[in-house]
Amino acid sequence: MKRSPMTLRGAELLRAELKRLKTVDRPRVIKAIADARAHGDLSENAEYHAAREQQGFIEGRINEIEARLAAAEVIDVAQLPPSDRVVFGATVDLEDQDDGNVVSYQIVGQDEADIRAGRISIASPIARALIARSVGDVVEVAAPGRTHTYQINAVRYT
């Protein structure tokens, strides 16, 4: 089984979702199915079919989360030794060399990525360009339309 990196925060969020699915959503949909069955003819019962479809979605998501957690290599960023090198879990402050804009990104697992929150996937082109680089290095990232050039201003492990 191929291990995939995941931050401690990402693993905790998946565990919380899994707990909610198993303790809240699954029992709710089972009750909805039972209630719909009580209404009689299942062939024309829209509530029954909708509840069954939702049950399939919930069970699929439970299986997906369990598989991702089983394959996860959970990394506690706070336990990493401080360094000026970019590694998985680090937050990197970058300065765009073309326009001077400064951005910060944390490099996280694929399930945790959210560009609006400043979290980029380890598999993204920018994260691949940053890994193993150090403060002061200049990296080029190919993007649709043009190549971006960034300077690494800081690396934080928070």
Give an overview in words:
This protein is of the alpha/beta class and 158 residues long. Helices cover 39% and strands 26% of the residues. It folds into 2 domains: 4-75, Helix Hairpins (Orthogonal Bundle), CATH 1.10.287.180; 81-156, Chitinase A, domain 3, CATH 3.10.50. The strands form 2 sheets. The protein has a 5-stranded mixed β-sheet. Strands 1-2 form a two-stranded parallel ribbon. Helix 1 runs antiparallel to helix 2. The relative contact order is 0.16.
How would you concisely characterize the structure shown here?
This protein has 158 residues and is α/β, with parallel strands linked by helices. It is built from 3 helices and 7 strands; from the N terminus they run βααββββαββ.
Beta-strand content estimate? 25-35%
Alpha plus pi helix count: 3
- What is the H/E string? EHHEEEEHEE
CATH architecture title of the largest domain:
Roll
CATH topology of the largest domain: Chitinase A, domain 3
Oligomerization status of the protein chains? single chain
- Enumerate the spans where pLDDT stays under 50 for 5 or more consecutive residues: none
- What structural class should be given to the helix and strand makeup? alpha/beta
How many domain regions? 2
Q: Fraction of residues in helices?
A: 25-40%
- Report the principal-axis shape: elongated
Distance between the termini: 29 Å
Strands, total number = 7
Mean pLDDT: 91
The CATH class assignment of the largest domain is: Alpha Beta
- Radius of gyration over all CA atoms, rounded: 22 Å
